[in-house]
Amino acid sequence: VVLFHQDLYNIDTTYRSNAEQVNAILDMLDRIYLDSAFLLKQIEIRAFASPDGWLHKNMILSNNRAKSLKKFIIANTPPKMALRHTIRTV
Fold first, then answer.
1. 75: which residues sit within 8 A by CB, 6+ positions away?
2. Tens digit of each residue's pLDDT (9 = 90 or more) over 5-57
3. Contact 18, 8 (CB under 8 A)
4. Residue 88: helix, strand or coil by DSSP?
5. Contact call for residues 70 and 26 (beta carbons, < 8 A)
6. The pTM is what?
7. What gap in Å lies between CA 26 and CA 73, rounded to an integer?
8. Residue pLDDT, tens place only, 46-59
9. Dihedrals φ, ψ of 17, to 5°?
C-alpha cells in the first residue's frame, strides 16, 4: 500500500511508510524477474481516494494515483524488465 497526501497523486517516498512500501514492490519485481520459474504477465494497480468529496473528482484522483505508481515503477526498474506494457491501472 502506497499512501498519498490528501488531494494529491504524486508519490512521496518520505510520507509515512512509503519508502518501505515502494522498496518492497521493487524488490519483489526484481526477485520475480530473476527467478526463471516465474513469468510475469501482468501487474494490476488499484488506487483509491477517500469517499469524501465529489465522486467525479475522486475518480480522477484515484486514476492519477494509479498512473503515478505505474510511472514510478517503470522509472525505477531496469529497462530489461520491460514492464511498460505489463502494468495495468484499474
1. none
2. 999 999 999 999 999 999 999 999 999 999 999 988 999 999 999 889 899 99
3. no
4. strand
5. no
6. 0.92
7. 7
8. 999 988 989 999 99
9. -100, 20
